[in-house]
Amino acid sequence: MPDIQMVITDMDETFMYQGGIVPEENVRALKEAQEKGVRVLACTGRSWAMCGYLVRSFGFDQYAVTSNGAATIDIQTGQMFDPCVVEPRFVEPIVQAALLDGCKVDLFCGAWIHTCTEHKGRWLQKAEDACAGRPLEERIKVKQWDSMEEMLSRSREQTELIRVEVEVGAPVPPHVAQTMEELGEFHLSVSYPGHWDICNPKAGKEVAAQRLARQFGIEREHIMAIGDSSNDIGMIRWAGLGIAMGNAVPEVKAAADAITGCCEEGGFAQALRRYIR
């Protein structure tokens, strides 16, 4: 059995489900691992604007990786390290291509999600509605602009991730695909069905996991990575021990060394208790 010294975990449908429901066993297992000296860090497709309160309240360790690996955040101070933004001159062409394809589009920019009233993603509105009655510090941080021009002028220099909303199972929209091909290389991923996330080519959860390993001086064979979606495949393959959730998509299960239980069954806790001494 490997000597696990650090766990890097996805959040949605891995540690928690349905946007924020967390099996009590997962929180207990997280604390048990920390008491054994193991670091447990969150690595999510969410922006810091969506997960800051969550990672602090659950008790994760010092750093969180957000926006599919585009940023690393000190969870106590909110300080961002080495943000990997989309080239500013590329943001507007990709956004305009998405609009030509009839898609909704939102931008992840550190502590804020930027959106435009007319083109706001349905997923974002749903997420805001879900936490509308909570205290301000627990809500998603959104800046909603009246026009796309204003939104772009305020956000293009700090965009970590362009989220293009599509129908579930739909391919990359044609104008978006063509524009990306013309502009250069990008990191393209799916956190969950119904959208495509576009980042700088140097982003990605695998890259972020390697960054965390260097930060703490831990070799990959001592790292466990856990996830459920296709954006987790890179870090699961890279880690010394890659774990797929029971509810993971088939590609993730194929890439993993082992499969644990489903999220709602406490599969995260099962994995930690099985492999951490």
List its salient traits.
single chain, 6-stranded mixed beta sheet, alpha/beta, 277 residues
* Number of helical stretches of at least 4 residues: 10
Rg calc:
18 Å
Task: Report the end-to-end length measured between terminal Cα atoms.
Answer: 9 Å
Low-confidence stretches: none
DSSP summary, beta strand count: 14
What share of the residues does DSSP label as strand, in percent? Answer: 15-25%
Overall body shape: globular
Mean pLDDT: 95
Regarding quaternary structure, what we see is single chain
Give the helices and strands as they follow along the chain.
Answer: EHEHEEEHEEHEHEHEEHEHEHEH
**What percent of residues adopt helix (DSSP H or I)?**
25-40%
Spatial ordering of strands, largest sheet: 5-4-3-2-1-12-13-14
Main pleated-sheet profile: 8 strands, mixed
- The helix/strand class is alpha/beta
